[in-house]
């Protein structure tokens, strides 16, 4: 029989926190996975027939599991239950009544119709931290407007800020607005938990893809506000720091980030071009920005004399920030080889050892033993029986729900 997920209070600050995850696809599930990584017991509520949409978003697959789904759901328990059935809905309402956190990204109005909106859940549970995730905020002129990452990348200005000078606005290669929304949601939920624990007062956290994307524009947005005009696109360069971009070498590209005058002078020395350090056109960063084209041409000419493999150690030794332009798999393997522990291996009930990318934070140095204790992304309904037993349902009641198709279970024993 399934048991609650193991937690180590010493390493996981959200140990003892229960999260009911009513979300699907990316922003909500990624946020709740981060909470699980911090020690929360996350119950993922899914449709008993098809589960989270991403379970079918393949190829690629690992065995019979979609890679997309596996990326977003480790550390959770799966309750597969039909919310359209009164008994199934009652079970989920009971789960919310005793939860610390509830996260949902239903289409606007759906949670309220189900009796799972903030007003209903907070009546049952005044201390709950309730998080609503949407494409556009509740105050938007079209509050029910569907929000998809690609739409919000365009609507928010992210596309406008991305791409080559003079070229077309470009979509960022990952669903970045969903990821930013997940990070904002997880951070705000943690803040709500602090208040809940100190005062017993709950919170309604509203997070939207659009607001998350707009807030991520930081200095680019402030540039627009300061100048009253649309910022230019700078491609692989920086709008206000020079040199801070990719450069071709004799056999490939490197990235040089000389973010201040001292680093710039170190770069000139490493390139054996002291004249560039003394040239009044390039003396300060504002000077270098004003004469960007001339300086970039000089640096490009100097770097073309040697290979990327030669320049990386030379610049590193000189104290100049330098990097390679890597492919994704190459980047993951390079990070692991460098000791950054980018990946972890968990034990999946049907797939065996499964490699996943870690969260961006650490509370302790990763170990194989700690990784082995992290539950893999659950099979659909893997924990249905255990969750319902925890709500006080009898074996006969649970069996009846399963027989009626209200609940799905996956026996991995």
TrEMBL record:
<dbReference type="Pfam" id="PF02515">
    <property type="entry name" value="CoA_transf_3"/>
</dbReference>
<dbReference type="InterPro" id="IPR003673">
    <property type="entry name" value="CoA-Trfase_fam_III"/>
</dbReference>
<dbReference type="InterPro" id="IPR050483">
    <property type="entry name" value="CoA-transferase_III_domain"/>
</dbReference>
<protein>
    <submittedName>
        <fullName>Crotonobetainyl-CoA:carnitine CoA-transferase CaiB-like acyl-CoA transferase</fullName>
    </submittedName>
</protein>
<keyword id="KW-0808">Transferase</keyword>
<dbReference type="GO" id="GO:0008410">
    <property type="term" value="F:CoA-transferase activity"/>
</dbReference>
<dbReference type="InterPro" id="IPR023606">
    <property type="entry name" value="CoA-Trfase_III_dom_1_sf"/>
</dbReference>
<dbReference type="InterPro" id="IPR044855">
    <property type="entry name" value="CoA-Trfase_III_dom3_sf"/>
</dbReference>
